[in-house]
Design a protein that fits this description.
mainly alpha; Serine Threonine Protein Phosphatase 5, Tetratricopeptide repeat; two-stranded antiparallel sheet; globular
Amino acid sequence: MSLVGRWKTRGGGKVPTRDRSRGQPDAPAPREAAVDGRRRRLSSTRPLGPRRGAGPALPGQAMDAVNLACCLLAALLYYNTLDAGFVYDDSRAILTNQDVLQSTPLSRLLADDFWGTPLAHGGSHGSYRPLCVLTFRLNHLLGGFQPFGYHLANVCLHCLATALVVKVARALFPPQARVGVAAAGLTFAAHPVHSEAVAGVVGRADLAACVLYLASFLCYVAHARARDLRLAAAGAGGCCRRRPRAGAELLAAAGCVAAAAGAVLAKETGLTALGVCACYDLLLHYGRWRSRSPRELLAKRRPRQVLASLLMLGLALAALLAARMRLMGAHYPVFATADNPTARCSSALTRLLTFCYLPAFNFALLLCPRWLSFDWGMDAIPRVTSLSDPRNLATLLFYGCLYRAARSSASRLGVPAPGRLPDAAAARSQRAGKHRRHPPRRKDRPPPPGAVGDATTCPVCKHNLANNHHSLLCRNTNNNNNIPAAEEPGAVAQCACRPRDRRHGRPAAAPGGGRHLGRAELVLLSLAFLTIPFLPATNLFFYVGFVVAERVLYIPSVGYCLLVGVGCHAIHERTNRRLVLVCLVLLLVNFGVRTLLRNRDWHDEERLYRSGIHINPPKAYGNLGSVLSSQGRTSEAERAFRMALRHRGNMADVHYNLGVIQQGKFFHVTSLFVQ
């Protein structure tokens, strides 16, 4: 055969034909080959999907619409909080906090606690949140003590947190799980348990911490993907078209640690963000490494890189924890008995049973947020004093279901369903084919070993890598001039070429980079989001100044919403789509109406305290009496104080306020008698 080879005319142009005896393309003439190569490169970069307006929207465009819809729902539901005032703890944190004023030096923010008390003072609350106080200071700089700006900032932070929840779900869920991503974002936007964090200005600490928490997690996801993509490109020996940018991996890791540090400066629970990041990296690779020994794993490059990332997280966590403990000093904050009466109980059995029951109670608030209160202290939740208490059954049921879900998901890590295709429609048709008499169609069958799509074939040119060659088109498209070497002796080398998605005209995901989690991994990571941020508030490791606080559930609710998204996606795959949509709409309507009604309770202090009478009568009546007394409604205030003492007779501040009212009435009667 000559150097020019055989030519075939097609559409007025010449293209090289293949010599079938050797399996290699003939070498074209130099000039024609250069022109043909330019045409091929231009055609390879041209989108293969439908044109604009001629087909369905791209996944990125659909996800942007979902993100916009979730943020819009969050803004509409909390629009009625913009005209609210300062209620409950807002007065102490803003109106009487000297650190909010512009006359106070900025250095005091680093030395005082959240309420403006020096950390070295014996009566300090111990809550170190200078970033949150800095946002209050900016609000005061722009609008003084007008409540509108403070509430507007809270609503904007909630919308931003909702957008980040959608982004987290999009990064974790498979591409076809659009319903699951939308369900997670919409549920987070409309959940009524967020009313205290958004409608109360003091809840900004939880809002800011959640935003930075999710930002830290997304940065670590980017770090893990850049790391895996770099390792895939290095192991492919030039067979990978997409390579990570220089410094992207290190920049993402620095962003993860910086965002976690910012979350800690907003609220103490932000320290657990690094733990969730570590869980993500472990779940990302545990399924493929569970059957190998530690010695085999450490002998390979990828496990060593993952271990280095986990070591970086551990060092950052230790540094942040050491800095936090040094700022707190040698003394620990002391809380009043009324705030957490169980912590002062002398019975160890009562403390254990009650503190084990409280996580189940908090999860019940996420499931059914019907009973909400501004304060759950005193005797709002009676203590579990004996083993015969029926609430122990709820505790056992909660931990049993949690253990069952975690164990079932852990046993399925790295075990794909046999014959299951990644596309949801193909999976449904495959399951439906089991009940037909005739075998499933060719496209529904799982690919046999060595077939197209297997690790031994190139996904672009469909050539078997055992022959150690790619086609000319594949070499020009992916710039792969050689074949990667296999890691294990006797194994066939894997190809890292990236085929193009013919439906949307975009490159497919590269092996080892940007892999979405499976259903079992999603469930475990959602449980990590649900439990790890809640650990500091359980009273199991150290005592805190509350029994139950709805604002503390703001970050753990991300895990709950992700579980809702996983469930909606699973039901959407197996049953009728309309059923999922109807259930999701009913859930959102229920949550939305409850959120709107709960926001009205946070409009002013009188409404807020009246709404908590059926849950915490002594605290609600005592605070209501103080509000009515400040408004000059002494008869109603006296009645409220007497009701508070009827439920709890050892409240010294209520006795004092009632005595002041009685003294005022005595002076009034005396003045009338003198006249």
